Amino acid sequence: MKNAGLRANSTLQKYKDVYLHLEAFIKKQYNRSDMALIERT
Q1: 3-class secondary structure, 32
Q2: C-alpha distances in angstroms, 22 versus 6, 10, 11?
Q3: Closest by Cα among 6, 8, 35 to 23
Q4: 1-41, pLDDT tens digit by residue?
Q5: pLDDT at 1
Q6: Is the dihedral of CA 30, 31, 32, 33 positive or negative?
Q7: Are 16 and 10 in contact (CB under 8 A)?
Q8: What are the φ/ψ torsions at residue 11 (nearest 5 degrees)?
Q9: Dihedral, CA atoms, 11, 38, 22, 32, nearest 10 degrees?
Q10: Alpha-carbon span 14 to 21, nearest angstrom
Q11: How far apart are CA 4 and CA 34, in angstroms?
């Protein structure tokens, strides 16, 4: 089970990377710091 911790850490890092990319996209595209997903529909 030693590798399970490594997978969890890499998954968390991927989540953080996606979050940062999404945050940058929202700032650039919509000139906002945050928005609810329901506003996009």
Answers
A1: coil
A2: 24, 18, 16
A3: 35
A4: 455 566 677 888 899 999 999 999 989 998 988 888 777 66
A5: 44
A6: positive
A7: no
A8: -65, -40
A9: -140
A10: 11
A11: 33
